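stage 2 :: seqdesign
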């Protein structure tokens, strides 16, 4: 019974990834172009999200500053979820809904990219970060699920929306991490050239 339940999770995850490949390959490619344009112009990626999406923001930033699958020069990325003093000071002195937007206004520059992750598309602090990014003339890459929620209205035509076609948070997050790995891999391929296999 337990093993069957576990098996079903694998099947559902694999099915969603297979179904999402065609729908998401175009926006993921657009995200890659935005990120490459940013980093080759001396810009940086700011990443944010809550809970599991915060972990994804940190994971992405680690792959950029460190490396993905092969050695390359460092790429500038900052997860806005990591500094507990900044997060708690802003939440305490202002409101939790502005923990990311104040950082975007402080750190963001024209040409930078905001990676905004919200499985529902309705996270108030992520939506506020998008607004701040637009004020700073940044491109936004939004990762959502469940139809995109309020992020649909927040994003501009010049932004990129990677919306996983599923309602369940766990499944959406599983595709988000795959999408982020696709971005990391493709950015490396654009910067370093294609490579057979991986190290």
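stage 2 :: out
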């Amino acid at each position: 019974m337990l093993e069957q339940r576990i098996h079903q999770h694998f099947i559902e995850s694999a099915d969603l990834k297979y179904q999402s490949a065609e729908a998401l390959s175009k926006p993921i490619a657009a995200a890659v172009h935005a990120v490459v344009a940013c980093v080759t112009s001396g810009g940086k990626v700011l990443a944010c999200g809550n809970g599991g999406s915060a972990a994804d923001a940190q994971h992405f930033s680690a792959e950029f500053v460190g490396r993905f699958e092969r050695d390359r020069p460092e790429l500038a990325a900052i997860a806005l979820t990591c500094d507990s003093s900044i997060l708690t000071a802003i939440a305490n002195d202002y409101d939790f809904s502005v923990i990311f937007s104040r950082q975007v206004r402080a750190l963001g520059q024209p040409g930078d990219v905001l990676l905004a992750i919200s499985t529902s598309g309705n996270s108030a602090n992520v939506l506020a970060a998008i607004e701040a990014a637009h004020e700073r003339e940044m491109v936004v890459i939004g990762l959502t699920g469940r139809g995109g929620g309020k992020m649909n209205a927040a994003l501009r035509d010049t932004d990129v929306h990677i919306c996983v076609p599923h309602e369940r948070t766990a499944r959406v997050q599983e595709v988000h991490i795959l999408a982020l790995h696709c971005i990391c891999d493709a950015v490396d391929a654009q910067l370093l050239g294609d490579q057979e296999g991986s190290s």
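stage 3 :: structure notes
- The helical segments are 2-40, 52-65, 84-93, 101-107, 124-135, 151-154, 169-192.
- The chain has a mean pLDDT of 96.
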